[in-house]
Write a structure and sequence with these properties.
Blueprint (H helix, E strand, L loop, with lengths): L7 H5 L8 E4 L14 H11 L7 E4 L5 H14 L6 E5 L5 H11 L4 E5 L5 H4 L6 H21 L9 H12 L14
Parallel strand pairs: 1-2, 3-4
Helix pairs in contact: 3-4, 6-7
């Protein structure tokens, strides 16, 4: 949705997999102050620099979460009278499952393939995102995968017990900065 590596638009748009590309997202907790514009505008600028024609780029700069990305993108495409049946969703590796679950719930009559840049855990951490930040975000994502279906935000996902036990351990040792206060922590 908002994370696009330097080669993602080239792989999908410039190789002819899609007639246009949509960038969705405002500013997140981690990207606050990182770009002089929204995430969507920032990544659209990267795509333009790689040769994606401006008239093939659609920007939705207001969404504040994964569900909002999908809902606002749907509104944008409706306003442009575009009705795609299939989507390629690009997200961070550790957010692929929740992105798909959210898409399935928010846009059930469409199909989607979710992909991400081929990055290893160590490649996500950098000068802006520390290892601690990264683990906190991943723990928060697991919390949402588990509890969002009951709230109607996403489809139910199977989670191995060992994954949930790892989540519980990480929360117990303090990786709780990205947990939603509105959801159970256990």
């Amino acid at each position: 949705m908002t994370f696009v590596s330097q080669n993602m638009p080239r792989n999908f748009f410039l190789q002819g997999y899609a007639p246009y590309i949509v960038f969705s997202g405002n500013v997140g907790d981690i990207t606050q102050g990182l770009f002089p514009c929204s995430e969507a505008e920032h990544f659209a600028n990267i795509a333009r620099g790689m040769g994606v024609p401006n008239d093939c780029i659609y920007i939705e700069p207001l969404a504040t979460n994964t569900g909002d990305n999908i809902i606002k993108t749907r509104l944008l495409l409706d306003a442009k009278q575009l009705n795609p049946q299939r989507f390629i969703l690009v997200q961070k590796t550790f957010m692929e499952r929740r992105t798909l679950a959210t898409f399935e719930k928010q846009w059930p009559n469409k199909s989607a393939l979710v992909t991400s840049p081929p990055l290893m855990f160590d490649e996500f951490a950098n000068d802006v995102i520390s290892y601690g930040d990264l683990v906190n975000v991943m723990v928060g994502d697991l919390q949402r995968i588990r509890y969002y279906p009951a709230l109607g935000f996403s489809t139910e996902q199977t989670m191995p017990q060992s994954v949930w036990q790892a989540y519980q351990h990480l929360v117990a040792v303090g990786f709780d900065d990205h947990l939603s206060p509105d959801l159970p922590r256990d």
